[in-house]
Amino acid sequence: MAAQRGEGDGVVTSPEAPADVRERARAIPEAAVARLAVYLRVLSGMVEQGVTTISSEELAGAAGVNSAKLRKDLSYIGSYGTRGVGYDVEVLVSHIERILGLTRKHSVAVVGIGNLGHALANYGGFPSRGFPVAALFDIDPDLTGVPVGGIPVNHIDDITSVCAEREVSIGVIATPPQAAQAVCDRLVSAGVQCILNFAPVVLQVPDYVEVRKVDLAVEMQILSFHVARRADEAAGDVVNGIGVDGVVIRP
Amino acid sequence: MAAQRGEGDGVVTSPEAPADVRERARAIPEAAVARLAVYLRVLSGMVEQGVTTISSEELAGAAGVNSAKLRKDLSYIGSYGTRGVGYDVEVLVSHIERILGLTRKHSVAVVGIGNLGHALANYGGFPSRGFPVAALFDIDPDLTGVPVGGIPVNHIDDITSVCAEREVSIGVIATPPQAAQAVCDRLVSAGVQCILNFAPVVLQVPDYVEVRKVDLAVEMQILSFHVARRADEAAGDVVNGIGVDGVVIRP
DNA sequence: TACCGCTTGTGAACGCTTGCACAAAGTCGG
DNA sequence: CCGACTTTGTGCAAGCGTTCACAAGCGGTA
Ligand SMILES: NC(=O)c1ccc[n+]([C@@H]2O[C@H](COP(=O)([O-])OP(=O)(O)OC[C@H]3O[C@@H](n4cnc5c(N)ncnc54)[C@H](O)[C@@H]3O)[C@@H](O)[C@H]2O)c1
Ligand SMILES: NC(=O)c1ccc[n+]([C@@H]2O[C@H](COP(=O)([O-])OP(=O)(O)OC[C@H]3O[C@@H](n4cnc5c(N)ncnc54)[C@H](O)[C@@H]3O)[C@@H](O)[C@H]2O)c1
Asked: Which of A51, A88, B8, B70 is least enclosed by beta carbons within 10 angstroms?
């Protein structure tokens, strides 16, 4: 029973630890990993602009974080900056790519080729970043064989063989919520250990499977919470200030 | 200059604080808010199944979290459980909805009606959860006037008037990355204070605007990191492991 | 009414993240 | 070659968020 973000499994810290890149990777906080991916994107843009060197302050600004945090994040992956100068953009890019495992291609399978699945299959941003979409699956027989984004849709029943054959390492679930757990189970038995889930359900997976979820309704509700909080604050301010009248929204 | 998740602004804690729901909302950690949204979804499912009462243990299981965490999260919004029994599902639903501000409708505008924008506009899950899609915008003249998901697309230049007229409170950016900052600026000047951004860029917004980003490439890369870490561990274990036994590779 | 068993709500400890502040380390101009 | 200036890398402290553990409270039962 390890559900989303199941972090707390007691993996033993190996007793003999050569302070090595391998071991270092283990120590990187998940929050830092997410930011590294953002830095990488910003840096890629810099490369295209012909920038060769960048300071922590500049990069932090472009990535929307504190520069101290940025330096700490980079320190997790090693010391590749030059004091007094900054970081060599290309060097940094290659080190982040190495740490994130982007030196290797990760084939992606999308399951559920409906509204969202179509958009994902047609999206050029994945292949270009080292995540080729290698397989598409749906349960609808009318869809099987139809090419979407250049790849023919397979029937969900062929998931095991097709995933194995195409070495799928990441599964994306874009089916209706009712089907998501079943699809997830099939992906897992097909050997997929990383899952990106768009369906609004909490997936149950074995400990060794990594699940990340993208839940738009939750995002919306978080925004809604902030709207409400803000409205309450404004109301509160008015109450503390003058009478009960005001509809003073932001300037 | 406050970028994504700009939390650390020195908002003054109002001097006279009646330990009231309003004030309480301020104290809820963001992480807890996200989980409350998940609990809400699970509970909604429970209501449909006719469940009237649920214990923290059960709900925690269904939501994929620790039961202590769940109770603490619920304690942020007040004490609505019955010791020895559990929580009344409907009561809990209504309290969470109130805290998340879901008693009010939040109109959504989607900008950029391409692959992703179409999927979002056609998605039934938003309206049904209190987030009616009230406006669609694109820069492409061929699209303006064309109805997508029942709503005609407006031209981006009309964003200010249309947003005001339809009381849009949440803006969704689904344009290419190059256009995202400009679109964001226009949404902000149109009075939109909450933005959900799908474009892979770091948006710069004023402090009072709340931005959440959904960055699929980052999600993929986090998964990739775990794949890599796992591979390294396996390699490491074998090297270290021949001597030290602990060869707990994956089952 | 008094007791018992169950579940909540929460104080306190713990651990992870963040942010500060500064020594170390490098560059560059002279 | 030296000294001034810039920027990194990191020890440390503060702040959050998570988890533990248990007293308090409630319903059911005799
Ligand atoms: N469309 C969006 O913008 C959007 C936004 C947020 C969340 N989501 C979520 O993403 C998921 C997909 O949304 P959608 O709008 O694309 O739905 P959709 O109904 O358009 O597409 C679902 C597809 O999944 C297929 N499917 C159903 N059961 C299957 C199974 N067992 N195995 C394989 N394929 C199966 C269907 O044939 C269909 O093609 C849903 O869970 C939805 O809640 C969608
Ligand atoms: N499609 C996906 O599955 C997917 C996945 C992850 C991220 N994204 C991101 O979401 C965004 C949209 O992706 P997409 O595949 O839908 O792209 P798309 O090219 O299909 O659609 C973009 C739309 O935005 C419109 N547009 C361009 N400039 C505009 C402007 N200034 N104002 C208003 N509209 C404008 C275009 O006319 C087009 O209709 C991109 O930033 C992409 O990186 C998409």
From this structure: B8
Q: Which of B111, B113, B115 to mutate to test the pocket of ligand 2 (most atoms within 8 A of CB)?
A: B115
Residues A170-222: pLDDT tens digits?
A: 999 999 999 999 999 999 999 999 999 999 999 999 999 999 999 999 999 99
Q: Is the pLDDT of residue B14 over 60?
A: no
Closest chain B CA to residue A30: B222
Q: Which residue's alpha carbon is at the shortest distance from the C1' of D21?
A: B68
Task: Give the closest-approach CA distance of B54 to chain A in angstroms.
Answer: 17
| Nearest residue to B229 via CA among A204, A98, A120, A146 | A98
Look up residue A14 and give its DSSP letter.
Answer: P
Residues B112, B202 within the same domain: yes
Whether residues A130 and A180 fall in one domain: yes
Do residues B92 and B130 both lie within one domain? no
- pLDDT interval class at B27 (50, 70, 90): confident
pLDDT, one tens digit per residue, over B166-176 is: 999 999 999 99
Q: Are residues A95 and A116 in the same domain?
A: no
Quick one: pLDDT at residue A51? 94
Cβ <8 Å between A63 and B236: no
pLDDT-derived band at A88 (thresholds 50, 70, 90) equals very high
pLDDT band at A236 (very low <50, low <70, confident <90, very high): low
Within window 49-68 on A, which residues have Cβ closer than 7 Å to strand D? 55-57, 67-68
Within-domain flag for A25? yes
Residue B195, ligand 2, Cβ within 6 A? no
List, in sequence order, every beta strand (DSSP E) within chain A. 2-3, 53-54, 81-82, 86-88, 107-111, 133-138, 147-148, 151-155, 168-173, 194-197, 204-205, 210-213
Residues 32-61 of B with CB under 8 A from A: 33-34, 36-38, 40-42, 61
Angle between helices A67-76 and A30-49 (to 10 degrees): 100
pTM to 2 decimal places: 0.89
Contact B171, B194 (CB under 8 A): yes
* Chain B residue with Cα closest to A174: B119
